[in-house]
Amino acid sequence: MPDFRKPSHLPNLRSDGQPPHPSWLPRQRVGISPQMIGRYPDFDVMSAVDTWDHATKKVVLARLEPSGPMRFFDTEQEKTLRAFCDVVLAQDSEPRVPVAESIDEKMASGQLDGYQYADMPDDRETWKAVLGGLDQTAGARGGHSFAEATLADQEAIIEDFSTGKLSGGIWDQLDPKRAWSVCMRAVLSGFYSHPWAWNEIGFGGPAYPRGFMRLGPTSTTEPFEKHGSTSEDPADVVKGSHS
Amino acid sequence: MSDLLRGLLKGAVGPTDNDSRFLLDVHSRELPGEDTMRRYAPNDEVDLVVIGAGAGGSVLAQRLARQGWQVVILEAGPFWHPDEDWVSDEAGSHGLYWTQKRIIGGSDPIELGKNNSGRGVGGSMVHYAGYTPRFHPSDFSTMTDDAVGADWPIRYEDIRPHYEQVEAELPVAGQNWPWGHPHKYPFSPHPVSGAASRLWEGARRMGIEMRVGPVGIVNGTFGNRPHCIYRGYCLQGCKVNAKASPYVTHLPDALSHSVEIRANCMASRVEIDQSTGKATGVVYHQEIGGQEVLQRAKFVAVAGYSIETPRLLLNSTSSRFPNGLCNNEDQVGRYIMVQGASQTAGRFPDELRMYKAPPPEISSEQFYETDSSRGFKRGFSIQTVSPLPIGWAEHVLADGHWGRAMREYMRDYNHWATIGVLNELLPQPDNRITIADETDPYGIPIARMDYSLCDNDRANVAYSTKIITDILHAAGSQDVLTIHRYAHLVGGARMGSTPSNSVIDANQRSWAVPNLFIADGSACPTQGSANPALTIMALASRLAQQMASGAAMSDDAVVRAGRGASEPARR
Ligand SMILES: Cc1cc2nc3c(=O)[nH]c(=O)nc-3n(C[C@H](O)[C@H](O)[C@H](O)COP(=O)(O)OP(=O)(O)OC[C@H]3O[C@@H](n4cnc5c(N)ncnc54)[C@H](O)[C@@H]3O)c2cc1C
Ligand code: SF4
């Protein structure tokens, strides 16, 4: 287990700009986290649910309900959307936070963010264009749809998308860099509003009416929160306390 | 009250002429008086209609109601019931924001939505962060001093008593303030979290002075408003009533003085009598697809936020004003401003959990004034902030990470602390609100906002980003992530000394329509690098005083021009 006091796992500090493969992370021991990995294996934000106010509880617990069939995207688009969400969030196995569903829900109910770039279509059209564009690029590069392309090909396409390098066909109808920001806004909000993601990152979650008392510097952990995993060998810690 | 006395009596004396803190209920967050408030008929000619129950509009209404004026506030958004409507959750707070479509253009389009304005009783301060600094005296004369920006027709001294009054009403907590015009705050500074104290240490090592506050967050006993519980959800609406917004600071008192807040009413235009040229009232929609209603009034004040105020004026066309109300000189919507709000985050060995405590904690105005050695005019302030997970994910994305790298930085969330700047970006005529060729669900044409940075702006942003990054390195951070963003709109219907360079005069009365006032952030000719809400409230407080005394109705050209550039002091 690496030492989390050190930053050696952070992408900016690594030669390839990528983190180590997540297999080095501890498995979640309580509650659920996406792919059951995380840094806080003994923390389950749901253990505090009784301390949340009812309005917040209603909103957050609704995210754990199974979602119905897609309303906004058609079946072809759905496949591409799911593949896109999996790749940009590195969700490569179950349990997955249902991000595609949350985007579909947002677009179907017209819950948009209140602004539109003058040279871009409505967010809903942007999404449809982007999904079409991903299939178009995947087809041109490997003869498959985006969903059927290999992970390496998918990642290469997303890398080009995120840096504004895709062009031709559908991509010329919009500003790809802005389209990337429109899509990722919805993706990130869908993923990091889910309690499973809070478990993965050790976020304390809703805090009304309870509040937080441990602001630091002495302690930053409430009684219900748990410290992140460390590189210490528990056996050594126990031995140490007896010597 | 003298500054010495304010220091001595810290936390012990409340504001006079505002009972909001006693009118609130200790056990529920409802704005008391919704069911029993006075109601006027549209045909009653009330003294004043205010458009927008936000920072500016609420203060104006509360003040004038205390003077016996009959006031109706039209508010496009809902009458909040915080116990039910507000949640301790980021994504769940989407409904607080103005999410009806606006078009953004220019070479540096400003992303709006959750980051810019609110919709509902209380306005944007319902979900503002809570920083409440004053402008500096220099902000009122940047053209004379530095040949950039504009001179205001008023000076710092004109609103200073109103700053003091509003600070007592919010109430503001913070350390004694050494910058600008030095002053004290009515409440003591809040405790500082572990995350912010790391940043403070970094600043100290670089010789940068930072101070705790100033924030409009209760720290102690204040009527029936509870103490802050440090839960960190200020940008999602304070369910505790600890953070100041007009919803708790001015509207309770307004309702108890016979103001009517007509929520869910979207104003579409100001009605003008074509023979006299005076405003006769405001036309609004009570529901989508419903009939238009005219509320008659002797005076009209527009306070709909820097985008909606110009939009409403531009949409109020008539034969006298074919290009929009007050726009015969082509000034409406121009000189719209945002502040640069880049943020950088630093990584530390310990778990800091920056989501605890209010996001606004400590700040510095050491770089606020022009320093010619930096290579640009005017300056910036430095403030600690603390994004919740979705905000943090956007920060990580902005630094270029997605997929596995995004997940890795997100898992590291608890080890990070974030510091930001507010750059004074300069007012420019082509940064402007205009009308797009689409309509909203009411059928009202929507706004378009064009924004482009100038060279001075870019130099300011680059310099300030380096300073905060240096602070993180000095604090010992192990990695740094940066996001460039913008916040805080003001301008668009600015005050000035002549109709050819402004929309309103030194008393915020429109040059073109004798009984029309602008009472929100749109009035500001410059923005300094202080967050605007306190100044917007103080300006509305002064405006109320000028309207109540009749001074605002003066047609004396010198009074109207105020202390313009060519006129250092009043005759
Ligand atoms: C995330 C965030 C953080 C912020 N943090 C800070 C901070 O820390 N410190 C600070 O000083 N400022 C901060 N601000 C900015 C501050 O909230 C605003 O500058 C201030 O509230 C603006 O006041 P206003 O009176 O101009 O408009 P608002 O307070 O926005 O009020 C305008 C009201 O008018 C209503 N309205 C608009 N058009 C119509 C119409 N046609 N008919 C009827 N009603 C209408 C709107 O619904 C709204 O309620 C922040 C803003 C945001 C979004
Ligand atoms: S941190 Fe304090 S001021 Fe902010 S929302 Fe929570 S209780 Fe309110």
TrEMBL record, chain A:
InterPro entries named among the record's database cross-references: Gluconate_2DH_su3 (IPR027056)
Species of origin: Leekyejoonella antrihumi
Chain spans, region Disordered: 1-28, 219-243
Name of the featured protein: Gluconate 2-dehydrogenase subunit 3 family protein
From TrEMBL, chain B:
InterPro entries per the UniProt record, alphabetical: FAD/NAD-bd_sf, GMC_OxRdtase_N, GMC_OxRtase_C
Keyword Oxidoreductase: yes
UniProt keywords, alphabetically: FAD, Flavoprotein, Oxidoreductase
Residues annotated as domain Glucose-methanol-choline oxidoreductase N-terminal: 117-317
Top-rank taxon: Bacteria
UniProt keyword annotation of rRNA processing present: no
Single Gene Ontology MF annotation: oxidoreductase activity, acting on CH-OH group of donors
Domain Glucose-methanol-choline oxidoreductase C-terminal: 427-540
Segments crossing the lipid bilayer: none
Family in the record: Belongs to the GMC oxidoreductase family.
Protein name in the entry: GMC family oxidoreductase
